[in-house]
Amino acid sequence: MQIQTAHGPAEATLDGPDRPAFLLVLTHGSNGGVDAPDLLAVRDVALGLDGAVARVVQPFRLAGRRAPGSALKQDEAWLEAVAVLRERFGDVPLVQGGRSNGARVACRTAAAAGAAGVVALAFPLHPPGKPEKTRADELRGAGVEVLVVNGDRDPFGIPDAADAAQVAVLPGERHDLSKDPGEVGRAVEPWLRRWAASPARAAR
């Protein structure tokens, strides 16, 4: 589905039931797409837990740009897209996430979106070779519990255990988390499972 935002159209690919246990909204990195192996692995886990999954292509990527530009505009567009998706699926827990730059967006907007949690895949803690330019404050300032899944060979760094509710470090993986996507899914599954049996779901 196409979603109009103040900063151009976004596009969401929807999977799962119309009356899900929870809604998981995922997005891509600054130079990637929503078919990245780690995003698909997390989608499949969520579907197995009776969640609905929306993979959102942000306006800058839909317009063919490789750089997201202003973080403020990116976050505004993201919140508009999430609001439309929440209206479609009703009052179920929202979990949002993404990989790399998308993980940053999910953290920065979590509180404003009313998210219950964030899945941050390959969170880019700092630019390669510049550990002094840390982005740990985005993780710590999310306002909700954040699960980080990073590879132990990621040149963008690995968040510290104190930066998030949970940090899973996968051996042998780099920034693309493509060596064993199934392991990414297995790292996320226990964390997502809490919303599969939420009180709101049980009351239906």
Automatic annotation (TrEMBL):
Q: Which spans are transmembrane here? A: none
Q: Which UniProt keywords apply?
A: Hydrolase
Q: Which Gene3D superfamilies match?
A: alpha/beta hydrolase
Domain of life according to the entry: Bacteria
Location of the KANL3/Tex30 alpha/beta hydrolase-like domain: 23-166
Checking InterPro entries in the record gives:
AB_hydrolase_fold (IPR029058), KANL3/Tex30_Abhydrolase (IPR046879), NSL3/Tex30 (IPR026555)
- Which GO terms fall under molecular function for this chain's record? hydrolase activity
Write down what this protein is called.
Alpha/beta hydrolase
Provenance organism? Actinomadura physcomitrii
